[in-house]
Design goal:
membrane; mainly alpha; transport; MetI-like_sf; about 70% helix; MetI-like; Carbohydrate ABC transporter permease
């Protein structure tokens, strides 16, 4: 009897957990769904009461308006180049720095690691003026490299890699590799990299989505429409007296699709990096 009661309690507990997770997923997905609905409706539907929650038939027409206003696909390509380059550089720098902080002893290690973490609490807006001054002096204003350079050093990435490598890469494995004559960089390339691929996927998704959605720095640096990223280009859609919300939502919707594709491609590694903490 006690066993039956415990089983019932466990079943009810699971039902409540699944119900809560389902509701949380619906609430999380609703803004994206509402954006899609507005992308298929005329601008007047944006302020309608009660709100419209069913899709319309103007998705293609609204997107044609976007194409008439901005060079959408070229801006998308610029954003993809910026995000791809930044992601690769961040993964390389963060994994190397995380490897050093996790597995090596050197003077000032705690100080430097603490200093890197402290930069995470500084609002990025505070550094906008000195960063703009440095990029201007380097002659990189209104260029994609000028946009990229600000994101190459990622304190969160260094922290995540340091934590993952310290747990996933055993010291015994490194000692065995050193006895076989491996250099530190070869250990990183042959041993560490294959182990931390799930962490790479997690950090890569975080960095790619963060840079893709960043607006303030890109808007500050870029002036030539030829160099616009998709976020800066979409901002030009509202620079009119009569704002077409259907057109804007259509542009935002299609600009969000690449992020969904990136996540679907790497979601298995993303999930495995959360659930795994050991060496295969």
């Amino acid at each position: 009897m006690n066993t039956v009661e415990k089983t019932k309690k466990l079943s009810l507990g699971r039902v409540f957990v699944y119900l809560f997770l389902s509701l949380a997923a619906l609430f999380s997905m609703f803004p994206f769904y509402w954006m899609f609905v507005m992308a298929t409706r005329p601008s007047s539907a944006y302020n309608s009461i009660p709100p419209i929650i069913t899709p319309g038939s103007l998705l293609v027409e609204n997107f044609k308006k976007v194409l008439n206003q901005i060079d959408f696909f070229h801006s998308m390509w610029n954003s993809f180049v910026v995000c791809a380059v930044v992601t690769v550089v961040v993964l390389f720098i963060s994994s190397l720095a995380g490897f050093a902080f996790a597995k090596f002893q050197f003077r000032g290690k705690k100080f430097f690691f603490t200093a890197i973490l402290l930069t995470m609490i500084i609002p990025p807006q505070l550094g906008l003026i000195p960063q703009y001054f440095l990029i201007s002096k380097a002659g990189l204003l209104d260029t994609l490299p000028g946009v990229m350079m600000l994101f190459f050093l990622n304190p969160l990435g260094i922290f995540l890699m340091r934590q993952y490598i310290s747990e996933a890469v055993p010291d015994e494995l490194m000692e065995a590799a050193k006895l076989d004559g491996c250099s530190n960089f070869r250990i990183y390339r042959k041993i560490v990299l294959p182990i931390i691929l799930p962490a790479f996927a997690t950090l890569g998704i975080i960095v790619f989505t963060a840079v893709w959605g960043e607006f303030l720095w890109q808007f500050t640096v870029l002036r030539d429409p030829e160099h616009y990223t998709i976020q800066v280009a979409l901002a030009q859609l509202s620079n009119t007296r009569n704002v077409d919300f259907g057109m804007i939502m259509s542009g935002v919707f299609w600009a969000t699709v690449p992020l969904l594709v990136i996540f679907l491609l790497f979601n298995r590694l993303f999930i495995s990096s959360i659930t795994e903490g050991s060496v295969k």
